[in-house]
Design a protein that fits this description.
The complex is a heterodimer. Chain A is α/β, with parallel strands linked by helices. Helix content of chain A is 37%, strand content 23%. Chain B is mainly alpha-helical. Chain B has two domains: 49 residues; 222 residues, MetI-like (MetI-like fold), CATH 1.10.3720.10. Helix content of chain B is 79%, strand content 1%. Classes of the chains: A alpha/beta, B mainly alpha.
């Protein structure tokens, strides 16, 4: 009995110490306020996670009073969220449709996401059009000889379900849910390494991370590069869009973030996160 | 005198609490997994979930069938055991009975080192060397396959099999062997007819431990198996239970995420089963 009492007392003591510490640590964090305070709520595209995460982080460290939140729900629900006023800025990885603009929404292109289609450096094929790429990924073309290459089976390398790059690639080539992947890898680096090691492989990766161990294909005659993504001539790309209400006024904090994200100062962060800045 | 007793009790209590931390962690994980894993199974339906042959978690009409993962994990583990156990077991026999001390020291050192290599390194070497090697050797378009995963797993389970079997073999009383030798058996006959049967429960435990390690491995397997949710076939890209959770968790949401917890729950049940088997063998070993 006394033993049990001792145990309970010791346990409660330890718990008190643990939780006591936690609280002591928590309180001072919320007190430091900057010039503008408040919250910026963003909601939308999961593909923009890297870009918006990097921007948000930098923004918060520059403005200590502002709390930045990002809710990765997908482009569609992000757009709905702005429309219903549930967030300040919606994030969409596609342009707004006309009916969405008619509902009083404005799009501001923050960045462009170029996706390179890559093959092994020894592969003689160096140019495909978008339709052929789609056919290859749907499994309608299975041999490199059908597109002017050597007689070898095409090995389709892709990303895991839920990846932003996969979502982007499949929506641009209109191959959603129909890709016959041979490998689904979990990082851009893995895709590049795998393609670099297999002469029959084809893969896709964010343009910024493509290295010279693999060969990026030109699509319909246009080679992927920052310039061709920016002027729109390279086809495998999509915009990262900030969605706001046309009539509504942004809160001071949200306006500050909007200005920051679209300013030149943010360009470096956007490129580091793997996208091409639009401004 | 009384003071000493109180101190004694206090220390006892402290140790008890530290012991309970482990138990608490196990309970927490079990309860959390069950709570997080059950809803998706209910929503998808246990039969559709466990025996569905198609997994397409982000499709417009998502399908959550985990039979490919379950079978892949079972086949992959079985393959690794089939390859790894004979090698590991014979290595243990050699080390325990035949090897000269200096050779034994070198090989034991190598086995220990093998046990210490992080799984991501196994994966990396597998990805850079084994996968292209398999592609060339078997003339297939891509080497990432169940076969590559089996080889990596077989190497990864070697240390546990060697070490546990070795301990079991070394614990066989010398009198047994002496008696056998005195009756005119050769030394090899003695090792395989006397020592090994005497150590069989320990060796069984080594195998079960290997199974546990193989079925729970995620990182190395993820890098060599291709991760497509196909029904398993030796030279096809496959996805294991572990890699199913690991590869999709980071971007998952909603039912997909819940379903991944359910996959983890199924994996957890497998591990529990293996642990029960391990306890059974170890207990029987003591009773012998």
């Amino acid at each position: 009995m006394r033993k049990a009492m001792g145990v309970i007392m010791a346990a409660s003591l330890m718990l008190t110490v643990l939780f006591g510490c936690g609280q002591a640590d928590n309180t001072p964090a919320s007190s430091g306020a900057g010039a503008v305070s408040g919250t910026v709520a963003t909601d939308g595209s999961t593909s923009m996670e890297k870009v918006i995460g990097a921007l948000g982080e930098q923004f918060m460290s520059d403005n200590s009073g502002i709390n930045f939140t990002y809710n990765p729900t997908g482009s569609g629900s992000g757009i709905t969220a702005v429309e219903e006023g549930r967030c300040d800025i919606g994030l969409s990885s596609r342009s707004l449709k006309d009916e969405e603009k008619a509902k009083g929404l404005t799009e501001t292109v923050l960045a462009l996401d170029g996706i390179a289609v890559i093959v092994h450096p020894d592969n003689p094929v160096s140019d495909l059009d978008l339709e052929t790429v789609a056919k290859i990924y749907r499994g309608e073309i299975v041999n490199w000889s059908e597109v002017g290459g050597t007689d070898a089976e095409i090995v389709l390398i892709g990303r895991e379900a839920g990846s932003g790059t996969r979502d982007g690639f499949e929506s641009i080539t209109q191959t959603a849910d129909s890709c016959q992947y041979r490998q689904e890898l979990t990082s851009t680096g893995d895709v590049i390494t795998t393609v670099a090691n297999n002469p029959g492989a084809i893969g896709y990766a964010s343009l910024a991370s493509v290295k010279d161990t693999v060969k990026p294909l030109s699509i319909g005659g246009t080679a992927p590069a920052e310039a061709t993504v920016k002027d729109g001539s390279y086809a495998v790309q999509r915009p990262f869009v900030l969605v706001t209400k046309s009539d509504g006024q942004l809160s001071a904090a949200a306006q500050k973030f909007f200005d920051y994200a679209t300013s030149d100062a943010a360009n470096d962060i956007i490129s580091k996160a793997g996208a091409v800045p639009a401004n | 005198m009384k003071q000493k007793k109180t101190l004694e009790q206090a220390v006892h209590g402290l140790f008890l609490i530290l012991g309970l931390v482990t138990v608490g962690c196990v309970l927490l994980i079990t309860v959390y997994l069950i709570i997080a894993g059950i809803p998706a199974i209910r929503e998808i339906g246990p039969v559709n979930f466990l025996f569905g042959q198609e997994w397409a978690s982000t499709a417009s009409e998502p399908k959550y069938g985990i039979l490919p993962f379950v079978l892949t994990s079972v086949y992959g583990t079985a393959g690794a055991i089939l390859l790894g156990v004979p090698i590991g077991f014979l290595t243990a026999v050699y080390l325990a009975k035949l090897a000269r001390p200096r050779v034994k020291a070198v090989i034991s050192g190598a086995v220990n080192l093998l046990a210490g290599i992080p799984s991501v390194v196994y994966g990396l070497v597998g990805m850079m060397v084994l996968v292209p090697g398999i592609r060339r050797l078997f003339q297939i378009p891509d080497g990432s396959s169940l076969f590559a995963a089996i080889i990596v797993l077989a190497i990864m389970i070697l240390p546990s099999i060697v070490k546990v079997s070795l301990t079991a073999l070394e614990a066989v009383p010398k009198e047994y062997e002496d008696a056998s030798l005195a009756l005119g058996a050769t030394s090899i006959e003695t090792y395989f007819r006397v020592s090994v049967p005497a150590a069989r429960s320990g060796i069984a435990a080594a195998v079960v431990l290997g199974v546990g390690r193989a079925i729970g491995e995620a990182m190395a397997v993820m890098m060599v198996s291709g991760n497509v949710a196909n029904m398993p076939s030796l030279f096809q890209s496959v996805r294991f239970l572990t890699t199913a959770v690991a590869s999709e968790m980071s971007y998952s949401a909603g039912l997909q995420r819940q379903a991944l917890f359910s996959v983890a729950l199924v994996l957890f049940l497998f591990i529990m089963l293996i642990n029960a088997a391990l306890n059974f063998f170890l207990k029987r070993g003591k009773e012998d």
